[in-house]
Each structure stands twice: as C-alpha cells, then as structure tokens.
Write a structure and sequence with these properties.
elongated, Cthe_2314 family HEPN domain-containing protein, 0% strand, 239 residues, 9 helices, mainly alpha, HEPN_Cthe2314
C-alpha cells in the first residue's frame, strides 16, 4: 500500500520476509483443514488462525514502515536540524513518523507472538506475570523445560540481535513513557553544545537497527511456525 502511495512498484516478497509469510500461511492452511474436519467446537483453531493472520498483517505493516522511513530518509541532506529548509523539514518529519511507527511495531509484534506461543504450547505465562511480554514467554519456556528445541532457537535469535533490540527498546520506551525519541536526542545535544547548532542523529544507524529488528522478527516467526507445523505433522495433521 505505502509503495503505491509513494509512486513505487508493489513489493515482491523475498528472503526472510517471504519465508516468514509463507510459513505462517502454511499454518493457516493446517488450521483451516482441521476446522473443516472437526468443526472446531472449542474454537481453538479459529483463534490461532485469527492471531496468525494478525501477525501476517503486522509484519507487512512493519516492513512497509521500514521501507517508507528509508524512502523519506533519502531526501534529508542537511547535517544539522537548523540548516533544513521547509521541504527538507517535511521530509524529515515523514521519516521520523515511519521510523517511530517501525520501532514501536517491533515490540508489538513480539508481544503478539508471545501470546500465540503461550496459547499454542500451554505455557501458562499469565500465572507468572499477568501482563507478560515476549521475553517473559521465552523465560517461561526455559523454566518449564518444554519444547526445548524451539526455546533454544528463539533465545539464540534474540541473543544474536541483542544490541539492536536494546537500542530499539530504549527508543520505544522514551517515545511511549517519556518524550519523543528524536526530541530526547536534541535535548542531549543541547546539554552538550549549549548555543551550537543541533546535529542530526545518525539516521542510517537508526534505520540499520530497525532493519535488524525486522530480520529478528522474521527469523523468530519462521522458527516458531515451522516448529508448530512440524509438531502437528507428527500428530497426523496435514501440513
């Protein structure tokens, strides 16, 4: 959608994004077949189907936000906020909007995945913490010693992207709980330079961290849904 609005060609899925979406659609097909066979009286399969479709949509929206942030970043040439003309300020504001939308969505998707994993594998994480996060779910996997193969894969992915996730988490927390993340950058610089011009934050580094977050989510979704598909296949559910 955003590509069309920006005058670009529609996205052609490839790489990790394509694999994640295809793996989730395999799960959706399994769930639909089971509902057709058994009518799903408890609605458990229907619930997982709806949640999985929601994850597909959320992943699509995250990728679009990342793409749009990169698109508008190309128009920001000035090294200092005070040197931007009106047009460049508008392009920078659009970059900021989609960049912030992106890093907020990173943790939103992870928490949605945590909800799916908690339900799919009967982890009962809410008994440990009423309002739990994806990372609480990972700790619950480890505590229960259930589905260790999946747990080790997800924890390994999280650790591989620890640095970028920490950066994104700090900016998400600043945005939601304290002040706009980009204003916090400006405030820090004002303390450093007082009367000098405020240098623009490292936009390319921020975008690289967001891309790392996107990749981490794709890999986590692939690992989780491939594991579920393989587990169900062993139980005789057609994948």
């Amino acid at each position: 959608m955003l590509r069309t609005m920006l005058g670009e060609m529609p996205r052609q899925n490839n790489g990790l994004l394509e694999e994640a979406i295809e793996t989730m659609f395999q799960t959706i097909q399994v769930l639909q077949r089971e509902m057709e066979k058994n009518d799903d009286p408890s609605h458990d399969f229907r619930k997982l189907e709806i949640w999985t479709r929601g994850l597909v949509s959320s992943l699509d929206e995250l990728e679009q936000s990342y793409y749009a942030a990169c698109f508008f970043r190309k128009s920001v040439k000035a090294g200092f906020v005070d040197d931007m003309n009106i047009q460049e300020q508008s392009e920078y504001a659009r970059y900021v909007y989609f960049y912030k939308n992106g890093f907020i969505r990173v943790f939103s998707i992870l928490d949605k995945l945590g909800t799916v994993l908690n339900d799919m594998f009967d982890l009962h994480t809410s008994k440990v913490k009423a309002h739990y996060s994806y990372f609480t779910v990972l700790r619950q996997f480890d505590y229960l010693k259930n589905h260790q193969k999946l747990a080790e894969a997800l924890i390994g992915i999280k650790n591989d992207y620890r640095s970028s996730l920490n950066v994104l988490r700090k900016r998400r927390n600043a945005e939601i709980h304290y002040m706009n993340a980009e204003m916090q950058d400006d405030l820090w610089q004002r303390h450093q330079v007082l009367h000098d011009k405020v240098e623009l934050e490292d936009l390319d580094k921020h975008l690289d961290d967001l891309k790392q977050g996107l990749d981490m989510i794709c890999k986590s979704l692939i690992a989780a849904y491939k594991y579920a598909n393989e587990l169900w296949a062993k139980k005789g559910m057609q994948v």
